[in-house]
Amino acid sequence: MDKETLSADGTRIAYETTGRGPSVILVSGAMSTGHTMAPLAQRLADHFQAVVYDRRGRGESGDTAPYAVEREVEDLAALIDAVGGESALYGISSGGALALEAAASGLPVRQVAVYETPYALGEDDAKGRAEYTRNLDQALGQGRPGDAVALFLRLTGLAEGMIERARHSPMWADMEAIAPTLAYDDAVMGGGPLPRDRLAAITVPALAVAGGASPDWLREATRAVAEAVPRGTYRELADQTHMVDPDALAPVLMNFFTAQT
Question: In which residue ranges of the chain is pLDDT below 50?
Fold first, then answer.
């Protein structure tokens, strides 16, 4: 990251920009940094100033205790101010939930697009998320970051054998290093349930995208986001999963952001 700005609480937020035009800030999900969004930023750069950043507690950005979702919204406010005073937002997974919260908070956001925000719709799903939150808080509170990472990977549906192999891989140490931010993403998700009232407060156009090859519950959750936002639209990308191909996603985002400009 070659640039930085200060959030309202003094936390340093590292970011970089690619391309020229209206700004689009890309918000990463759990267990990732701004560099995860770089391939998508490159594909948007012909039409937009694409902005990637390290969320607080990750990569080159700082962190300030105690954590609150409002602080991450303030981080986005600082970024928007730094890149021109107004921006569109795109977020993936729990990063999408943060982008939606920023839009609902009244930041100077032109449009907001999200990919597969994993909200819980059913009672059983909500109970499972509550159990995840309890176990995650316990693992992090007891200084067991590896167990926290394993809990998250289990939540995503990764098989136990693959989790065990990951524990012995070179990437595990890096995953443990940002494990505390799993609690941040859990807070951003509000424990799981779809925040219908909060989404109803979003006044700007919103696009919710899901992969056609993703599990039914993820597509249903994404469709529910579009239905809850007054100016929401739902799209599916054929053959895509939660690990969406930037080449498939970028044209959809460009059409949405251009049409709404």
Answer: none
